[in-house]
TrEMBL record:
<dbReference type="InterPro" id="IPR046799">
    <property type="entry name" value="ROXA-like_wH"/>
</dbReference>
<keyword id="KW-0408">Iron</keyword>
<keyword id="KW-0223">Dioxygenase</keyword>
<dbReference type="Pfam" id="PF08007">
    <property type="entry name" value="JmjC_2"/>
</dbReference>
<dbReference type="Pfam" id="PF20514">
    <property type="entry name" value="WHD_ROXA"/>
</dbReference>
<feature type="domain" description="JmjC">
    <location>
        <begin position="94"/>
        <end position="223"/>
    </location>
</feature>
<dbReference type="GO" id="GO:0005840">
    <property type="term" value="C:ribosome"/>
</dbReference>
<protein>
    <submittedName>
        <fullName>50S ribosomal protein L16 3-hydroxylase</fullName>
    </submittedName>
</protein>
<keyword id="KW-0560">Oxidoreductase</keyword>
<dbReference type="GO" id="GO:0016706">
    <property type="term" value="F:2-oxoglutarate-dependent dioxygenase activity"/>
</dbReference>
<keyword id="KW-0689">Ribosomal protein</keyword>
<keyword id="KW-0479">Metal-binding</keyword>
<dbReference type="InterPro" id="IPR039994">
    <property type="entry name" value="NO66-like"/>
</dbReference>
<dbReference type="GO" id="GO:0046872">
    <property type="term" value="F:metal ion binding"/>
</dbReference>
<dbReference type="InterPro" id="IPR003347">
    <property type="entry name" value="JmjC_dom"/>
</dbReference>
<keyword id="KW-0687">Ribonucleoprotein</keyword>
Length: 381
């Protein structure tokens, strides 16, 4: 499936992080990549994050956390409910393939694909998110109400588990059918209600680290490299009229110490690449059961087996002079020459025909294969 009737450049210029947009079925041939039974099966797996939201009345909402027993779904009555499963792209290649159509947004911004299934009237209530999201209608129909711009100070209802808006200022209504997309920028209130019993929505979310996350993470990283000997000094201290005053000169030098320690662009780039590429679910081990050997890598390359990226792995890079710093699931690899070109190609696609490579490229492929970030496509895969 391809976004055949969509202009990424026009969208970025007029709507990205600016205004909601309804996109009427832009696909060449829309087919929902997941069945309801498959989604329910994922929700029963212990390593998969899932939730069930039940709407007992307009003011009465309940949340259940997965994993679920299969019998739980048979027990659901006619009251509105919604099943939500996080990071479905990590487990279903067919869902992960959707992300290839949204690469006009930098890959490091992509979070995951959440999939929801609801019966008539099902939803999660009026809310807002701190990230951009494309809401793709997979099956059935859903009505989206779009409201006001919200902030951290926007009043929420008193609920232990759900962040529901106290007030919703409806500004637009969109009825989505299979293949339709609604883009919602960060902070914009929205509320989706299923219009039938076969309503499935695929939500592609884009991460946006907060300033607090960046300051905390970067400063913690810098602290690990600072020694006790690196201290304030005031050689040439002059007598001052009041010993209780912290002078502007002292404050300037103190603040300069902090700013200098935090202002190394190259070190920040290395830290952020590892920070942003860290696996969302580190407890899931994608490494092969048997370690891959260099002989395995060389044999696969000789036979022309393409390299496949693990859809659950996060790959991105930063340029450092002539080298490429490749970040994979929190790990950093320094790549130069042909290896740097290979690193760029790995970040650009999900299936790569490598061909002949040098030793450094083979070593990179070996390390990534044993990390579980890539695999070699075998005959019949």
């Amino acid at each position: 499936m391809k976004l055949a009737r969509f202009d990424p450049a026009a969208f970025l210029a007029s709507h990205w992080q600016q205004a909601p947009l309804q996109i009427r079925n832009p696909w060449d041939d829309w087919q929902c990549p997941i069945e309801p039974d498959e989604l329910a099966g994922l929700a029963c797996e212990p390593e998969v994050e899932s939730r069930l939201v039940l709407r007992k009345s307009t003011e009465n909402w309940a949340l259940e956390q997965g994993p679920f027993d299969a019998e739980r779904f048979a027990q659901l009555g006619n009251e509105p409910w919604t099943l939500l499963v996080q990071a479905v792209d990590h487990h279903m290649p067919e869902v992960a393939e959707l992300l290839s159509q949204f690469r006009f947004i930098p890959s490091w911004r992509i979070d995951d694909v959440m999939v929801s299934f609801a019966n008539t009237g099902g939803g999660v209530g009026p809310h807002f998110d701190q990230y951009d999201v494309f809401l793709i209608q997979g099956r059935g129909r859903r009505r989206w109400r779009v409201g006001q711009q919200c902030t951290d100070s926007t009043p929420l209802k008193a609920h232990e588990d759900l962040k529901l808006l106290e007030n919703f200022d409806e500004q637009a209504v969109y009825d989505l059918e299979p293949g339709d997309i609604l883009y919602v920028p960060p902070g914009v209130a929205h509320d989706g209600i299923a219009l039938d019993d076969d309503c499935m929505t695929l939500s592609i979310g884009f991460r946006a680290p907060s300033r607090a996350e960046l300051v905390t993470g970067w400063s913690d990283h810098v602290l690990d490299s600072l020694g006790e000997d690196d201290r304030f000094s005031d050689t040439g201290l002059k007598l001052q009229e009041n010993p209780g005053e912290i002078t502007p000169e002292a404050l300037g030098r103190l603040q300069a110490m902090v700013i200098e320690a935090l202002s190394d662009p190259a070190q920040f780039a290395r830290w952020f690449g590892g920070f942003n590429s860290a696996a969302k679910y580190p407890d899931i081990d994608w490494r092969p059961e048997e370690p891959i050997t260099m002989e395995d890598v060389q044999s696969a390359l000789r036979q022309g087996h393409p390299v496949l990226r693990n859809f659950a792995s996060r790959l991105m890079f930063v340029r450092e002079g002539e080298a490429i710093l490749l970040f994979v699931d929190g790990e950093t690899y320094v790549c130069e020459g042909a290896c740097a070109a290979l690193a760029e190609q790995l970040c650009a696609g999900t299936r790569l025909q490598v061909g002949s490579t040098d030793r450094s490229s083979q070593m990179l492929l070996l390390e990534l294969a044993n990390l579980g970030a890539i695999a070699f496509e075998q005959q019949g895969d």
